[in-house]
């Protein structure tokens, strides 16, 4: 019984310690974000890495998400004689929910894991310690550009995801299922409001910040050896993905 309580207490203390460490890491990073100078060259490289290099997976995922959503939505709406609302349903689902969330999960798997692995390798090869010896801030050089890049590109990637998904829904709904083109577009215009587009962009902005922050955090405190980097990379993807989904719920509660 005592052993079980000791293990439980140790687990609770470890969780509290990790949360405190994350809080300090986040606070230091936020201070540096608003304190010049910003490493512009590295920021541009990370914008390209997180944003441009993720375009292919975003476009493919968005296209087939819209197609599947349109196909399934058609058969559901047909039962109630409401096929005319297919375009509206697909568009609202993508802009407000599926676009930001699925784009964030794709970026987490592609870019978040790579960021954690890169910083983790720098940790175990003592490159981060070398930066400190040269009087350079590792957070300013490694973390801040990633956080800024993730925050900048995530709304853009989410918008691309939604636009491509809407096109995929149009292809299935109009060209395959035979819904009128005018009816489809009319449903989009009538059903979607500017504030709903803003909600989707706010979500994407928040997700981009969280993904970059958590990926950098896991890599920065990676354990030594190949096993430590592997564990940090896996934890970065899992924690960031779960955080995106949990945050999405609370943002819906506040914004809707």
Describe it.
Helix 3 (55-78) packs parallel to helix 6 (138-176), helix 4 crosses helix 7 and helix 4 (86-124) packs antiparallel against helix 9 (225-255). The protein folds into two domains: 1-35; 37-255, no CATH class. The protein is mainly α and 256 residues long. The protein is elongated, with a radius of gyration of 21 Å. The protein has nine helices and no strands.
* Termini Cα gap: 47 Å
Query: How large a portion of the residues is in β-strands, by DSSP E?
Result: under 5%
> What's the Cα radius of gyration?
21 Å
Structural class: mainly alpha
> What is the domain tally?
2
Number of helices: 9
Order of helices and strands: HHHHHHHHH
Summary tags:
256 residues, 2 domains, 0% strand, 9 helices, elongated, mainly alpha, single chain
What layout of secondary structure does this protein have?
Elements: H1 2-33, H2 40-50, H3 55-78, H4 86-124, H5 127-133, H6 138-176, H7 181-191, H8 194-220, H9 225-255
Helix pairs in contact: 1-6, 2-6, 3-4, 3-6, 4-6, 4-7, 4-8, 4-9, 6-8, 8-9
